[in-house]
Amino acid sequence: MLSIKNLHANVADKKILKGLNLEVKTGEVHAIMGPNGSGKSTLANILAGRSGYEVTAGTITYEGKNLLDMDPEIRAREGVFLAFQYPVEIPGVNNVYLLKAALNAIRKHRGEQELDAMEFLKLVKDKMKLVKVREDLMSRAVNEGFSGGEKKRNEIFQMAILEPKLAILDETDSGLDIDALRIVSEGVNSLRGPQRAIVMVTHYQRLLNYIVPDHVHVLADGRIIKSGGKDLALKLEAEGYDRVREEAAVA
Amino acid sequence: MSSQPHDVEQLVRQEYKHGFVTDISTDTVPPGLNEDVIRLISARKNEPEWLLEWRLTAYRHWLTMTEPAWAHVHYPKIDFQAISYYSAPKSKKDGPKSLDEVDPKLLETYAKLGIPLQEQKLLAGVAVDAVFDSVSVATTFKEKLAEAGVIFGSFSDAVQNHPELVRQYLGSVVPATDNYFAALNSAVFTDGSFCFIPKNTRCPMELSTYFRINAANTGQFERTLIIAEEGSYVSYLEGCTAPMRDENQLHAAVVELIALDRAQIKYSTVQNWYPGDENGVGGIYNFVTKRGDCRGTGSKISWTQVETGSAITWKYPSCVLRGDDSVGEFYSVAVTNNYQQADTGTKMIHIGRNTRSTIVSKGISAGHAQNSYRGLVRIAKSAEHARNYTQCDSLLMGDRCGAHTFPYIETRNATAVLEHEATTSKIGDDQLFYCMQRGISGEDAVNMIVNGFCKEVFKELPMEFAVEAQKLLGVTLEGAVG
Amino acid sequence: MSQEALEFYVAEHARTIALDTDWLHGLRQSALSNFRRAGFPDTRQEDWRYTDVRPILKRRFVQAGDSGDLAADAGFEGMRFAGLDAHELAFINGHYDKGLSRLGPLPQGVILTSLAEALIKYPQQVKDCLANFPGLDANGFQALNTAFLTHGTLLYVPAGVTVATPVHLIFRSNRQPEPRMAFLRNLIVLGRGASLTVIEDYSGTADAEYMTNVTTCISGGEGASLRHYKLQGESQKSYHIAATHIRQARDCRVESCSIALGGALVRNDITASLDGEGAEVALDGLYMGNGRQHVDNHTWIHHRSPHTTSREEYKGVLNDHARAVFNGKVIVHEHAQKADARQANDNLLLSDNAEIDTKPELEIHADDVKCSHGATIGQLDENMLFYLRSRAVDADTARSLLIFAFADAVVSRIGLRPIRERLEAMILGKLPDSGLIKEFVQ
């Protein structure tokens, strides 16, 4: 469903991605690991269409279409979801209203009936249990006054409501204590399925103890230098990025 | 609470260290101001006709102006006829050809101020122009600078040796008619410093002018002009002191900076004119117009000032950001104690696209002093994507002083982003007591808090000046907490 | 022009203001001579440097009162808040209309009446209140307001009394071939421990030309508490010059919220004087301009006693050729130790032809204080925009939604739902693409 070929990208004239290739099929869970500054978040942001990232070469094809041609909201409607590393606080914009508007925009795009208030409310109640979101957070503004863990949970909660085809989790584990990590992981695991692909971008292996990936990739210096199964993550944890980087250089 | 208020009083009462008078015979014109005095000044300096005309035009305009009253300062009306507008140490007719010929008394004076003019004793890497009352008495490292193509010396020399440059740039940033004190300066200025940095030249050393008022009943009216051509860089320092006298003396200077494409000018001031005594008697009225013109694309002008002296300070070093992508900066520490008054700040006029400015102002008030920040940030319609950040903090010591903030922010462009923040805090007995209880002396505690408060500005100063500024602050505020 | 305008107002005064009781006559005459002396403000005066009042001086507004110009227009009924139980006082072109007013039962001792009636029935209360606000007539508009003093409101709440039902003052202006001007004076007095909610509500027939010149004096006794809302939704061709003076005794708490959405040229002066220890004031404001609207807000907060607190938050949204001025001055007087003042002014500029001039000032004469102010001018946050778009919201909607949220930060704090709802609808009406965001805000 997602095919990235020879992707080169700059941020503020600095080369970050230098020929990245990645193939993701429906139903798969991929983990992209790498040291700080390797380009992980750049990749996640480019997939979601954030401005400030300049793609200088390469292609990204999503379900047969050129993803780079689409505005961020069109990507979202086509089923691309980014769980932000730093979810933004938006004072004055109500959480539930945003979610309802988002869901209806996506449903409309797919040619589906918009949900009425009752149906929507039922959906929200169901999904809230999934990631144990406190009800009072829902009546607040988007992420405003949320703790770090609450923000991350809110991202997964939104993902559960919007049911994307391709979910990109950008450092979703960072800043979570072990209980919160477990809750978030359970939420993500429950969303795994044959209709959906998940790409997790992370610095640490510990997330992968909870969400076991099908494929693990090592991103360094703007390219994927090694790919493998879940064992690769363990090897990374044990031996460090430098070792893997050296091996890749030799190979 | 506590404790011995007299400790605190003592902390503040420190003597002004530069208050001595040099006994030297001078050539001083009698007090009074009229066209003849201006002609006389011009004649003494052997000036070309156009410059005399320029002065006279300024004077005639000045006569039509009224003294500004908007600043948050109070002082008795100045009698401009009671001031002598020219005073110079007597020397051989042609003036000293080299440092060896400079009157030893003058060299001694500067040595006493910590500014040795003998090159071998100088801080390596700083060239000094020493201005004594109305004239420049010495400039060091002239030859070395000339090798790099840098022209640095007294304004009078520049008029004689580089009249074309002076004529081209004089008044091009601060017109002779700009404001009351600038007009007065334009009419009667006597000397000052002149710097010219040619294209793509990084000035090999810090340039510095040391201003000294010595004679009584005189005013000092100097004029500084710095031109940085395309791609050049210069760092310029300015220091000032004066003897302790019971009458107020007027210092009305004009500084003009011109930065062409990609040029950078860093202008630092440590102003320590005599502030008057603890009862507010005497001291310098420091009414100064300083303005930099970022004329070229990508140019940058940075003002850093530490203002501890003067009875009254009235100055707003400003930047006109005309060139696209140009940058203006203003870092200021203004300290007022006893009956000192300061009304200072800056103007950032954004005209070019992508122009950026930063303002960091720290005001410290003690005793009966009044300290005001007054600033203007204007984003013209043409200044697409202009940015400004302003931070103005006030620190109060004692309950008889005042701190005031008057920022004007005018925006005519929707792509501009401006932020202004201001806070007021105090050094209180509680904090002081806490420090002392932990074994820190009151003096050290005040110094610590004040230096922490001013850190952001001090780091902008060249090394030697930063050290001097910190010491100066300690002296100025001694005893300020009570 | 200024001189001719001056003569005109003096003549209009002579034409419309009858000889009255001695004290009132004296008060008006002295204000009239103040007016002659002060004249109209011009841009050379620091407090008026960004606001040019010449458009007002060019026009010749006359006082209403001729038969036929005191009838309510069709829009009047819509000004009542459905779902809000309130004591309503109605004014048409500056004149009290008893028939349109609806007063419910009031607690013992409360006086709620038109100023015209109060001058006859309660002169002492009026005199006492005015005496509490000396030296108001510093500028020409203010002096005129006193010179014409006749209409408005007296609202007196004695010590210990809580008026549970909000008081809604409805000031409606309508279209006349010769444009009208209304001089209004509202006197609000709260005794010790009294409590009250009052809404000043200004509006007019769409596109009608007229001028409102209003001064509201609020005097809060010890421990009194007041919620005060000033809703200004005047016609887009009208002129609105307003001054609010607040004095607060010990531990008195005032919340005053000023919403300025209408008017061609608007000036709001608010002065809050925290006279007694522990007094607290919160000033909130929202101004939104489009077309060629000019909105000028000047506020002065005087901390005159120890342990006084002030909070001020003004927000502005400017589009088209609109221009706004914000000048907020906090003055901490000598001996007002432990004063705590926070002030913020945030602006969104939506058009290259809009302009904002802001000047947040601090003047501090005491050393043990906590004061801060901040001002920002900018555009919408790119991160927020991207977040919304990544959640499938299109760019126009996201933009409009964020503007609404920015403005609504002030309105959402208003405790009375019917007021909030009307204001939110009005804000929506001033936004580009407001249709897109209805589902987010209803």
Structural features, described:
The complex is a heterotrimer of chains A (251), B (482) and C (442). Chain A has 251 residues and is α/β, with parallel strands linked by helices. Chain A contains 10 helices and 12 strands. Chain A has helices spanning 40-48, 72-77, 95-109, 117-130, 135-138, 148-162, 178-190, 206-210, 230-239, 241-250; strands at residues 2-11, 14-24, 29-33, 53-62, 65-66, 80-83, 90-94, 141-142, 166-170, 197-202, 215-220, 223-228. Chain A has a 6-stranded mixed beta sheet with strand order 6-9-10-3-11-12, with helices on both faces. A 4-stranded antiparallel beta sheet of chain A has the order 2-1-4-5. Chain B has one domain (18-428). Helix content of chain B is 23%, strand content 35%. Chain B is built from 11 helices and 23 strands. Chain B has helices spanning 5-12, 35-44, 49-63, 104-112, 142-147, 155-161, 163-169, 180-188, 429-437, 442-458, 463-477, and strands at residues 26-28, 87-89, 126-132, 135-139, 151-154, 193-197, 206-212, 223-228, 233-241, 248-251, 254-259, 264-271, 283-294, 300-307, 312-315, 318-321, 327-336, 341-350, 356-366, 370-379, 387-397, 402-411, 417-426. Chain B is globular. Residues 1-13 and 120-124 of chain B have low confidence and may be disordered. Chain C folds into 2 domains: 2-381, no CATH class; 382-442, no CATH class. In chain C, α4 (115-121) packs across α5, α7 packs across α8 (395-411) and α8 runs antiparallel to α9 (417-430). The mean pLDDT of chain C is 93. The chains are: A alpha/beta (251), B alpha/beta (482), C alpha/beta (442). The A-C interface holds A 48-51, 71-73, 75-77, 81-82, 84, 87-88, 90-94, 97-106, 109, 141-142, 158, 162 and C 381-384, 386-395, 397-398, 401-402, 404-406, 408-409, 412, 439-441. β22 of chain B pairs antiparallel with β19 (355-364) of chain C.
